[in-house]
């Protein structure tokens, strides 16, 4: 919960002062009574003392005033609502290391399945595109609300080549910047980048992420793989097993500088869960709703309750 005018909450400092003044008044009232009646005669002069009941109305009024001060600060609650127009570019690494089978059925196969799940869960009005990259980025599908087209493009992913993450981010940003919504303005956009290591070619990926952030396009990164991943490389008639361990550090930096989150996953189940989470997150936005009326109503009811009790029991407001 947040407040539109939080400085009003300083008024809550007056509540302890009010309670202190009430306590002083009660002690003064008791002192006056003792001045006119000796203690042994008190039971016969005032046989029915209200004891704890005399403090209930004041406690109710003090709490009511505190609630009303909170209401005056205009409390707000954040709620997730579906976005009416947004765009997401799925950016998939298809370098040689993505052929590693340390993730079932392979890193690239798991990425394809997770992206497919993303498409089934993201709201229909969110435009989703697909970009693959190794040493060269290629837009397989520009962002569209026809998710079947993006789904079909997923089948074109093939592993091979080196890794140019910076170029991939720059290409995705250009594609997203070219979009226009119904009002003629660029819709909110985000990038979901999946890879298994650091960039080996092209533009600096951290600089590219900073440029994306400048355009208000967060780059969510997903590092996929394990420390024991390997691939088989052919050299003429012979083959060689080459280790391709997961290296998530650069991906974490990319997400951080762009104002997004990074995820590191080691199996296809985790990857699907991450993509499902991102589909929900990117398909909704948080909107603040003012709940002043609820606080004000509760405070007024409690204030009335305390006042009525005081009148019924003691014939006075406090």
Written account of the structure:
The protein is an alpha/beta fold and 318 residues long. The chain has two domains: 103 residues, no CATH class; 199 residues, von Willebrand factor, type A domain (Rossmann fold, 3-Layer(aba) Sandwich). The protein contains ten helices and eleven strands. Strands 5-4-3-6-7-10 form a six-stranded mixed β-sheet, sandwiched between helices. A three-stranded antiparallel β-sheet has the order 1-2-11. Helix 7 links the parallel strand 6 and strand 7. The longest helix has 23 residues. It is elongated, with a radius of gyration of 32 Å. It starts with a strand and ends with a helix.
Strand arrangement, largest sheet? Answer: 5-4-3-6-7-10
The total of helices stands at 10
Domains, number: 2
Question: CATH class of the largest domain, anyone?
Answer: Alpha Beta
Round the mean pLDDT to the nearest integer and report it.
Answer: 85
Unreliable sequence segments: none
Rg measurement, Å? 32 Å
Order of helices and strands: EHHHEEHEEHHEHEEEHEHEH
Shape: elongated
Tell me the total number of β-strands. 11
What is the CA-CA span between the terminal residues? Answer: 33 Å
Full CATH superfamily name of the largest domain: von Willebrand factor, type A domain
The biggest beta sheet is recorded as: 6 strands, mixed
Oligomer: single chain
Helicity level, as a percent range?
40-55%
In short:
This protein has 318 residues and is an alpha/beta fold.
Which secondary structure elements does this structure contain, and how are they paired or packed?
Layout: E1 2-3, H1 14-36, H2 42-45, H3 56-72, E2 75-82, E3 86-93, H4 107-121, E4 126-133, E5 137-144, H5 147-154, H6 165-177, E6 189-195, H7 205-214, E7 219-224, E8 230-235, E9 238-243, H8 249-258, E10 262-265, H9 268-282, E11 284-290, H10 292-314
Parallel strand pairs: 3-4, 3-6, 6-7, 7-10
Antiparallel strand pairs: 1-2, 2-11, 4-5, 8-9
Helix pairs in contact: 1-3, 3-10, 4-5, 4-9, 6-7, 7-8
């Amino acid at each position: 919960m947040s407040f539109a005018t939080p400085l009003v909450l300083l008024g809550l400092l007056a509540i302890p002062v009010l309670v202190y003044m009430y306590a002083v008044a009660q002690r003064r009232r008791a002192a006056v009574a003792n001045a006119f009646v000796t203690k042994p005669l008190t039971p016969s002069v005032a046989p029915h003392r209200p004891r704890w009941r005399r403090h209930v109305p004041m406690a109710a009024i003090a709490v009511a005033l505190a609630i009303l001060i909170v209401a005056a600060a205009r409390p707000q609650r954040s709620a997730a609502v579906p976005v009416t127009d947004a765009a997401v570019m799925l950016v998939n690494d298809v370098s040689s290391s993505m052929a590693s089978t340390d993730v079932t059925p392979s890193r690239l196969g798991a990425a394809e399945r997770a992206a497919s799940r993303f498409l089934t869960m993201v709201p229909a009005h969110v435009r989703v595109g697909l970009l693959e990259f190794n040493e060269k980025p290629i837009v397989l599908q520009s962002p569209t609300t026809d998710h079947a087209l993006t789904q079909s493009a997923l089948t074109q992913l093939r592993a091979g080549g080196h890794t140019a993450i910076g170029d991939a981010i720059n290409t995705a940003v250009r594609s997203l910047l070219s979009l226009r919504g119904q009002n003629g303005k660029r819709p909110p956009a985000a990038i979901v980048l999946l890879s298994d290591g650091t960039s080996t070619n092209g533009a600096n990926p951290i600089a590219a992420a900073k440029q994306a952030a400048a355009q208000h396009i967060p780059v969510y990164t997903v590092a996929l793989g394990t420390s024991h991943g390997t691939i088989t490389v052919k050299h003429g008639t012979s083959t060689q097993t080459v280790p391709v361990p997961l290296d998530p550090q650069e991906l974490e930096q990319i997400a951080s500088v762009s104002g997004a989150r990074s995820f590191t996953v080691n199996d296809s189940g985790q990857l699907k869960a991450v993509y499902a989470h991102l589909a929900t997150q990117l398909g909704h936005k948080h909107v603040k709703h003012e709940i002043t009326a609820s606080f004000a109503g509760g405070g007024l009811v409690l204030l009335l309750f305390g006042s009525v009790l005081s009148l019924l029991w003691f014939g006075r407001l406090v």
